[in-house]
Amino acid sequence: MPKTSGPRVSWRTGLSALAVAVIVAGAAAQPAGQADQAEMLMQAARTKQIVEGKLDEAIRIYQDVVAKHGQDRPVAARALVAIGQCYEKLGAAQTAEARKAYERLVQQYPEQREPVAQARARLAALGAPAEAAGSSRLTVRRVLGGDVSGKVSPDGRYVSVTEWSTGDLAIHDLASGEVRRLTETGDVAGSGSYAEFSVPSPDGRSVAYAWVHETYDLCVVGIDGSKPRVLRVSGDGVARQFPLAWSPDGRHLLTEFVNADGTRDMKLVAVLDGSARLLKALGKNPSPGGAFSPDGRYIAWAIREGLSLFDLRTGAESTLIADQSNHSVLGWVPDGTHILFSSERSGSADAWLVAVADGKAKGEPVFVKKNWGFKPMGFTRSGAFYYAVNNNVGDVKIAEIDPTSGMVVSRPQPASPRGNTWAPDWSHDGRYLAYILAREPHRTVIVRTLETGEEREFEVGERTIGLGASLRWSPDGKSLAVSAFEPGRGESLARIDVQTGRVSFLMPLPAGVGFPSFEYAPDGSRIFYKKPADPAAGRGPRLVVRDLKSGEETTVVEKQGFFQAALSPDGRRLAMAGGENRHFIYAVVPATGGEARELLRIDPEKEVPFGGCPWWSPDGSYIYFLKGVRGKTPDEWHLWRVPAEGGEPQQTGLTVGRQVGGLRMHPDGRRLATTDFKVNLEMWVMENFVPKAPAASNPGVE
């Protein structure tokens, strides 16, 4: 159910106009201190603004606060933010006054960080003033840090986000900083349900998103607290579906469909009834993205050969830019004159701008910005472009523990001088450590010889190693398997021969669900991995084992809420993690299938479970897992272990950051490789980079 205020009456609605007048008049007469008087005025103004909707009167009171209590700088700064908000609500005619309030705040109160950040965000959304319209000087500024899962509303007032403490869809007001949930059925720690791929509508009144709960449903919800509406439910061969963009008239959603066989389709879904029209079948190739032209006629998207335009009137597709430099469309400029896109033509993912008219490129692309970011978050109507910057840093480290007590003997130390590494795995003879290196614009695999410190680097060709990818040594130590996306094959496991460097296809992975963790059987002939639910076939999520020679697969465990599993060193047992009745459970089950034996149950209301894979000690005696403390830093996790035969869990004394690729025990049982992954995502805005159209000449002047 969506979160809504309903018909409740707050104490503020009982304030009459007379009461407000008394507060305002009494502020100066009372013997209270200056700070008290300022706060009383702020309260009165806020009542006028929010409760009564009398914005002009609210502005006058806020201005009085600034004039009389300017020495109380935090209060004055808040008042200026509120003045700007009131002017914005009065309509476009008052935009200049709103801008003046925000600019005064930025110039006169620079030390008030939070109000200044709000003012800068609104100035970015409002765009440059008319007198600066001829300016083409690029400006870039940080808007906020935190979740960047959604996109900005066209008016620049909010950004859609996933509230990861629950998994619910929410909106983050860029002026006030308020985060408000639009759904309330998220259960990311229990059943694994959450919102993803959210996109605000052209009028900003609704948000489209994918609702993940073993499968992906396409949904729309109003920001007014109305009930979410499901447009399409996954099934009938569709593994995943998620929105990319709204049509300018708000009647359709450009939606990417990922089918159970690994193929992808671009479709136009009607918001009214959920009916879908096929635009383009992609096969097992990467997503082209997509952005509508402001007039709604074209969709710009990326293809292997460059950029192209799909004409919605004729169904024809034409090449816009013929350049195989790994492109992606960032957005169509609101006035329709240019397309902003990313290209690796200069060796890194940079932002470029190309002029477009009548469905054709006009002139050569123009460079805009080096290393623009990693995720487009949309244009506002003013022409400001919002995007996400990925400052995440992973660092593979090695800690020493006492195998008997399980306690940490030495703190984690970097395993390599290289930066941004993750997903470690030891070779079975203990001589090598492999991990993934994130290096723009691609990711590679590194093998480090422990004795000498020598490192070898392995490229994976055109394949893309995702952030959640897993890496495993084969039992014979001759190769590595890594999960990746391969053009023409989709999600798959690639095999890297560590002697020759040759990369080959090993096996397919389930389509459209990211990269599940996997484990080799001890003899290397089979691989255990997770398959998602298949509602059309009446199947839940399941753990399967695949024979690498014949391709035959056998279901080992099928259970709702199942997240991940890890195979014991002897190959006889599986440690499983999953959600059940809003709890997170660790259990052990025979590798051939059978009854599960519960080891541990975590209540997410009290503790924060780590929704990833558990890990075995080399001798199979213990199962290691991570959990956090509710109310503490969410990216701080404590390592625990529990006896595989059952018993009380023990804390090891090791605290790590967010994990990518998990923890791996060295065969000697004394060394532990971990990824200390620090999450730092930011939202930035870029403006004043689109060339202005030349002024029309006066035909009466020669």
What can you see in these coordinates?
- This protein has 702 residues and is mainly beta.
- The protein folds into 4 domains: 14-126, Serine Threonine Protein Phosphatase 5, Tetratricopeptide repeat (Alpha Horseshoe); 138-285, TolB, C-terminal domain (Neuraminidase, 6 Propeller), CATH 2.120.10; 288-390, TolB, C-terminal domain (Neuraminidase); 393-683, Neuraminidase.
- 13% of the residues lie in helices and 42% in strands.
- It is built from 6 helices and 49 strands.
- Strands 17, 18, 19, 20 and 21 form a 5-stranded antiparallel beta sheet that branches. Strands 42, 43, 44, 45 and 46 form a 5-stranded antiparallel beta sheet that branches. A 4-stranded antiparallel beta sheet has the order 1-49-23-22.
- A hairpin with a 5-residue loop joins strand 38 and strand 39.
- Helix 2 runs parallel beside helix 4 (73-89), helix 4 (73-89) runs parallel beside helix 6 and helix 5 (95-108) runs antiparallel to helix 6 (113-126).
- The longest helix is centred in the N-terminal third of the chain and has 18 residues, at 34-51.
- It starts with 16 loop residues before the first helix and ends in a 15-residue tail after the last strand.
- Mean pLDDT is 84; it is low at 1-32, 130-135 and 695-702.
